[in-house]
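Q: Could you fold this chain for me?
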Amino acid sequence: MAVQAIVSALHFSTTAASLKDHFAQFNPTEAFVATDRGSGKSKGHGSVTFPTTQDLEAAITALDNSELHGRTIKVDRASEPARSGGAYGSTPRTSGRAYGAPTTS
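A: Sure. Below is the predicted structure, expressed as structure tokens.
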């Protein structure tokens, strides 16, 4: 199962290719740098995907607080997405009656 690292404090000239290259010794499968939709400029953070947890942990140990393009970058394990209880991110109903069911008087 693929696992991800979140990389922050990236220089604004960092590209996905240069980020992947920085992590090359740890077998990254993909790198992503978040960019502004309007200007296309980097937002200063991104992610790197690894095939194994061992590759991820080795990369975090070796590259957290390392320098890339003159900036000290922060590398953390991406958290699992939170599961919502229902549609549109809402929590489950707790009233005891089904949604749309008629109320009793």
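A (continued): The first strand starts at residue 3 and ends at 8.
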